[in-house]
Amino acid sequence: MKLSSFSPVVRRRVVVTGIGIVSPIGIGREKTWEALCQSQTGTTDIQHADYLLPPSLWNDKKISQEEKQKMKQSLIEAMPCKVAALVRSQTTAGEPSFAPTAHAPRSFAFSEYCVAEALRDAGLLSPGAKPSLVVEDLNRVGVNMGMGIVSLDDVADVALALHTDPLHPHYSKIHPMFVPKILGNMLAGVTAIQYGATGPIGSGVAACATGAYCIGEAAVWVQRGKADIAICGAAESCVSGIAVGGFSRMRALCTKYNSTPETASRPFDKQSGGFVMGEGAGVLVLEEYERAVRRGAPIYAELRGFGQSSDAHHVAAPHPEGLGARHCIERALEDSEGVGAADVGYVNAHATGTIGDRIELKAMEESLGVDRSAPLYISSSKGALGHLLGAAGSVEAALTALALRRQLAPPTANLHDPCLSLEEQQQKKMCLIPHGTAQPLSTPAALSTSFGFGGINTALLFTQVN
Question: Which residues form the Ketosynthase family 3 (KS3) domain (predicted)?
């Protein structure tokens, strides 16, 4: 039997042409970047969290404001962790409030802002009060947006309605949009609906690696010709009593610095005491390289490699030897088809201020520390941002692309006593960038790592574009 002859599959180049960020240290890409480079922190007393109580309690007009405050205070007093990194409510006219509504949780509002900022940055939005996508074919626009945890507050509201008095369940209090509000793919759905994007759609769920996973998957679409443009990233908002209580019971959250919240998130620091829960969103616009060049789009970086691995070890703890972390970094290099370990001059690390920090450094040493002539600069954005959970990977990928484009590595806020001494750093050819000012770079490649519960590991490799 004669076999048919097919042309080989050609892998297309993928570049970042737009970035949108909402974070605890700034609304928008530039405000976040500026604050990050100045070691500002977004962690504050959890008293400032507006949505600790479920909406059905906070919005109940039969409950006085005084009683609501007592409920909130009782909840806070019950929690061992009393800090969080919050996107603060905006008070200036014209600025977004990011308040949850009956039809959409707070994370949807974060995402909507970021998508618009990223598309506008990429030059793909028309002007006017109701901007639309300026593209030739909406069938060539894909959307891959996710979240690590669905709206727990909406689940709590339904539970209260049905089970507060089991003999008299209040079925009618369930909002008709309850189910769409808690579906993990709905960020992608509402984004595609808003902009009429009818290309491929997806919504990866990978715990704290969700944002990075969505970006990596979207990049494959563009590489394989399934889409020419991809809107991708993640959003998260679960600074609520349920989430804080759940993570506190795991002893994952920092309780050591309740009296000095701004110092609580301490990646790579000997005095770290757990992670600080944060909220926000990060969105990238990925585009096929030739198309971006033809239209004169701004290009931040090329997304050259996407690495994935599984620890296959534990539901919450990283592999003690960092095998999964090392493997995903090595696979990102392999996927790049040409970028070597020594070419990577900066890593925006997943580091959360937990036992995983040292393990991640071991993985970097084994995967990136071979035959280096220049030090590998390393920092973690979580010192400033807190841990944005599902959105962490996309926000940090965006910051990595900015660092590469601007050849400037942001510092690690609150890193004063590194877990590696200066002598150890020199020996391993690593440089942990401490609290203070940003570090000038001279590197053609940078890496962003993201790891999640369940042993999910991802690495995104970016390179400069000539």
Answer: 11-464
Q: Give catalytic status of residue 327 as yes or no.
A: no
pLDDT of residue 274: 96
Is 350 annotated as catalytic? Answer: yes
Q: How many residues are listed for the chain in this entry?
A: 466
- Are 87 and 280 spatial neighbours (Cβ–Cβ below 8 Å)? yes
Out of 81, 214, 350, 419, the active site residue is: 350
| Cα angle value 86/80/38 (rounded, 5°) | 35
- Helical (H) or strand (E) element with 449: strand 445-452
Distance CA 447, CA 344 (A): 7
Q: What region does 223 belong to: left with phi over 0, alpha with psi -120 to 50, or beta?
A: alpha
CB of 278 closer than 8 Å to CB of 271 = no
Please tell me whether residue 213 adopts helix, strand or coil conformation.
Answer: helix
pTM above 0.85, yes or no: yes
**CA–CA distances in Å: residue 89 to residues 33, 221, 375, 447:** 19, 36, 40, 32
Complete domains list, the chain, with CATH = 15-287 (3.40.47.10), 305-463 (3.40.47.10)
Q: Which residue has the tokens 């962490």?
A: 392
Of the residues 208, 214, 328, 431, only one is catalytic, namely 208
For the chain (466 residues), the mean pLDDT of every run of 10, in chain order, is: 70 97 97 98 96 92 95 97 91 79 93 97 92 95 96 94 93 93 95 98 96 98 98 96 96 97 98 97 98 97 98 95 97 97 98 97 94 94 98 98 98 98 96 97 98 97 94
Measured from the Cβ of residue 56, the count of other Cβ atoms closer than 10 Å reads 20
Contacts of 127 (CB under 8 A, 6+ apart): none
Per-residue model confidence (pLDDT) at position 6: 73
Of 81, 238, 387, 431, the active-site residue reads 387
The answer to whether residues 188 and 144 touch, using CB atoms and an 8 Å cutoff, is yes
Would you give the distance in Å from CA 294 to the centre of its chain? 30
Cβ–Cβ under 8 Å, residues 413 and 39: yes
For CA atoms 396, 399, 404, 408, the dihedral sign is negative
Phi, psi of 234 (to 5 degrees): -160, 160
pLDDT value of position 244: 96
- Of 160, 457, 205, 143, give the one whose Cα is nearest residue 319: 457
